């Protein structure tokens, strides 16, 4: 472990930013079932390859190498490109196997962390705040979310350079921290989901039981047991069904759509 | 009342840009709420756009395209739903009743776009073999064409045909269906919430789910307040774990691991 801090010159910074820009615009544009983000990775690293490999055959080999199956989270995947660029710059074409190992080894874990934080937790928190306000005609929540998304865009910018400078030690050093951060984010997300059930699910029971002089309002009885009892039961039902084989989110949406229309028509829900 | 030609064109461009934004900048394109807001601005009725987008947002909170899965495209649904809701003056439940089927049908076109891109993937392969570097770049970027058209064309067709079709639907939509759809609008968020609970390690964090629920259902704390409580708990969790990690490191370097390990078990207590 050498602590010689890699001081990078202005030209290199420019090149790193170029790769980053190309990752931002290209990473998912070529997405396809066969190799997913393969061509996106190639697009980002292509200028670097043309600089490094002057021999046309080497260049072809490395272009083909970087056009193989790849899939990760686009918010943090550029860290891998940064590390890759540092290795290839150092070792050239002899690093081919090492680079393939790096890519396939990191894409899965990065996808896991990135999808959880950027694909699930943040949209859940800001989406529910924004939607909640939007339903009462307040635009503030939506604008707050837009501002967060713009902020995230700036956050994505320095990551490729970080990967280049820190190299592989990044994974070990920040691994624990990243894990804790992900868990904290999940904790926050779960709290918000708990609050979503009573606030956004609207499932009242207008049914009134009449027998002689006695009238029983179903909803007020239910409320005495627990507020939002019906939404909780519905969530539990769908949660349970989603655990079954061959049940997809699309099927569940259709199921709930039909169920609501039927129950609504019989005035059981309203 | 109907949709003006310039509105159809601008909404079509919005649909075509939206999917590119999803794949690159991720500012609005992934989120029905923000797409609904923009559609509302174009249609001159921000309130309706927010209401349609917000309702759809709550249905897809947990739904993501991880690993390239196709999910209901409620962003396109938000555009079409908002446009017709404003044009017809029929309100939210009508818009949702339209947006949900549109979102479900759009899944097929998402699959088609991802499939079509395989063609460009193979063109990239042959350009690599030729050593044609600009050709490689170009063919990767061509991927944006199927993506963009997969959203723009259906939106254009629906909005153009819609003006005449909408009159027929409006006349003949039965009462039970409209009231059933408004019930569905309230119940459908159940699916998104259940998917979130499936995706997140809910069992491990179930205590926070209960805290969020109680704050919202019994104490009626607004969503932003609940997110702040969640943030406070997340910070506490992070700090606790940071301390534990440091202790672990300290004991590891002292190389006597006697009796300290039982700290690990009660790290969640509070």
From TrEMBL, chain A:
Presence of the UniProt keyword Transmembrane in the record: yes
Source organism superkingdom: Bacteria
Alphabetic keyword roster: Membrane, Transmembrane, Transmembrane helix
Transmembrane feature ranges: 110-133, 139-159, 180-201, 221-240, 252-269
PROSITE patterns listed in its UniProt record: PTS_EIID
Database matches in PANTHER family: N-ACETYLGALACTOSAMINE PERMEASE II COMPONENT-RELATED, PHOSPHOTRANSFERASE SYSTEM SUGAR-SPECIFIC EIID COMPONENT
UniProt name for this protein: PTS system mannose/fructose/sorbose family transporter subunit IID
Species the sequence originates in: Companilactobacillus huachuanensis
From TrEMBL, chain B:
Region of interest: Disordered: 249-270
Compartments, as annotated in UniProt: Cell membrane
Top-level taxon of origin: Bacteria
InterPro entries reported in the protein's UniProt record: GatZ_KbaZ_carbometab, PTS_IIC_man
Membrane-traversing stretches: 25-46, 58-86, 92-113, 152-170, 176-197, 209-238
Main localization (coarse): membrane
Keyword Cell membrane: yes
Membrane topology qualifier: Multi-pass membrane protein
Comp. bias regions, Acidic residues: 260-270
Biased composition (Polar residues): 249-259
This protein's UniProt keywords: Cell membrane, Membrane, Phosphotransferase system, Sugar transport, Transmembrane, Transmembrane helix, Transport
Protein name: PTS mannose/fructose/sorbose/N-acetylgalactosamine transporter subunit IIC
Naturally occurring in which organism (per UniProt): Companilactobacillus huachuanensis
């Amino acid at each position: 472990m050498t602590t010689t801090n890699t001081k990078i010159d202005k030209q290199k910074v420019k090149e790193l930013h170029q790769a980053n820009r190309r990752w931002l615009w290209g990473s998912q544009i070529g997405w396809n079932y066969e190799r997913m983000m393969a061509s996106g990775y190639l697009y980002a690293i292509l200028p670097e390859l043309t600089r490094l490999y002057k021999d046309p055959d080497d260049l072809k080999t490395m272009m083909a190498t970087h056009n193989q199956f790849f899939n990760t989270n686009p918010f943090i995947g550029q860290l891998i490109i940064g590390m890759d660029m540092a290795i290839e710059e150092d070792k050239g074409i002899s690093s081919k196997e090492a680079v393939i190992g790096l890519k396939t080894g990191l894409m899965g874990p990065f996808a896991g962390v990135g999808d959880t934080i950027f694909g699930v937790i943040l949209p859940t928190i800001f989406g529910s705040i924004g939607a909640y306000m939007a339903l009462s005609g307040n635009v503030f929540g939506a604008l707050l979310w837009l501002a967060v998304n713009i902020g995230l865009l700036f956050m994505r910018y320095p990551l490729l350079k970080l990967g280049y400078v820190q190299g592989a030690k990044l994974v070990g050093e920040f691994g624990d921290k990243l894990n804790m951060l992900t868990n904290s984010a999940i904790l926050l997300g779960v709290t918000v989901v708990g609050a979503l059930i009573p606030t956004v699910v609207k499932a009242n029971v207008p049914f009134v039981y009449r027998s002689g002089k006695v009238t029983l309002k179903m909803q007020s009885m239910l409320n005495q047991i627990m507020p939002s009892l019906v939404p909780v039961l519905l969530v539990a039902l769908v949660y349970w069904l989603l655990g079954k084989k061959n049940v997809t989110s699309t099927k569940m949406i259709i199921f709930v759509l039909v169920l609501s229309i039927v129950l609504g028509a019989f005035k059981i829900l309203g | 009342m109907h949709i003006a030609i310039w509105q159809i064109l601008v909404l079509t461009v919005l649909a075509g840009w939206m999917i590119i934004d999803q794949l690159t900048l991720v500012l609005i394109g992934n989120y029905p709420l923000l797409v609904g807001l923009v559609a509302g601005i174009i249609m001159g009725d921000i309130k309706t756009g927010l209401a349609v987008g917000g309702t759809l947002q709550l249905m897809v909170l947990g739904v993501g395209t991880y690993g390239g899965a196709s999910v209901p495209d409620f962003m396109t649904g938000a555009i079409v739903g908002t446009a017709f809701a404003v044009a017809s003056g029929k309100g939210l439940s009508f818009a949702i009743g339209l947006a949900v089927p549109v979102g479900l049908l759009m899944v097929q076109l998402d699959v088609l776009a991802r499939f079509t891109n395989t063609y460009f993937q193979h063109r990239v392969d042959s350009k690599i073999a030729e050593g044609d570097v600009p050709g490689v770049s170009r063919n990767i970027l061509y991927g944006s064409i199927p993506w963009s058209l997969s959203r723009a064309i259906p939106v254009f067709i629906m909005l153009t045909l819609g003006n005449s079709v909408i009159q027929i639907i409006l006349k003949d939509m039965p009462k039970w269906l409209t009231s059933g759809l408004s019930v569905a609008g309230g119940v459908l968020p159940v699916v998104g919430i259940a998917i979130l609970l499936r995706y997140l390690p809910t069992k491990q964090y179930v205590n926070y789910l209960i805290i969020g629920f109680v704050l919202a259902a019994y104490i009626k704390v607004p969503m932003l307040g609940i997110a702040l409580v969640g943030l406070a708990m997340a910070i506490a969790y992070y700090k606790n774990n940071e301390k534990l990690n440091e202790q672990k490191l300290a004991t590891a370097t002292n190389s006597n691991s006697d009796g300290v390990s039982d700290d690990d078990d009660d790290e969640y207590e509070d």
